[in-house]
Amino acid sequence: MPLSDPSNAEKKQKLRLEALARRAAMDPIARVEASLALAGYCEQLELHDGATVAGFWPIRDEIDPRPLLDALRAKGHQLCLPVVSEPHLVFRAFGRETAFEPAGFGTQAPGPEAEEVRPDVLLMPLAAFDTSGNRIGYGKGHYDTAIAALEKTGPLLCIGLAFCAQEMSDIPAEPHDKPLNGILTETGFRRFQHIEAS
């Protein structure tokens, strides 16, 4: 992997902190309403029938994907959640009866008895995004390594979930950065131009 430009790393950290401060400053009721609004846009995602969708368990003041995941389950999609593992994230399937356990970083996930699956779609948390589909994560690189591994085994759709308040005008992108195929916020779904027709 190419070395990161130190100046880009500094810019990203500044943008990350600014976006997270905006998110933290949101009214709690507005945050709940925005999370509920995501479910109303599930048709806009245009996922293929039976796609396996990886969500995430929300932490701190992240947008809550669970109403959206419930709507996707109702449409027949298999759901899974990420678990931190080596050499990259693994994804465990879950249903209404699944028992969850702590999975690090304040998240919950199905236990080791749950089936490991390969997602077709990643619904991803993030700190910030821009109008070109560039994203800033939390700096741990878990999704970057997972995306690189998953793309070796087939097509993968990467969709960020965030509040509109997390949008920045321009995020510096480096050669190893994987842009999002789309972003879903409380105002709807935006597909980015670099997406290739499947």
Automatic annotation (TrEMBL):
Highest taxon of the lineage: Bacteria
Catalytic activity entry: (6S)-5-formyl-5,6,7,8-tetrahydrofolate + ATP = (6R)-5,10-methenyltetrahydrofolate + ADP + phosphate
Cofactor: Mg(2+)
Molecular function GO labels: 5-formyltetrahydrofolate cyclo-ligase activity
Enzyme class: ligase
Entry keyword Magnesium: yes
Keywords: ATP-binding, Ligase, Magnesium, Metal-binding, Nucleotide-binding
InterPro entries: FTHF_cligase, FTHF_cligase-like_sf, NagB/RpiA_transferase-like
Transmembrane segments: none
EC number: 6.3.3.2
The UniProt record lists the keyword Ion transport: no
SUPFAM superfamilies: NagB/RpiA/CoA transferase-like
Membership in a protein family: Belongs to the 5-formyltetrahydrofolate cyclo-ligase family.
Name this protein carries in UniProt: 5-formyltetrahydrofolate cyclo-ligase
Protein species of origin: Roseibium polysiphoniae
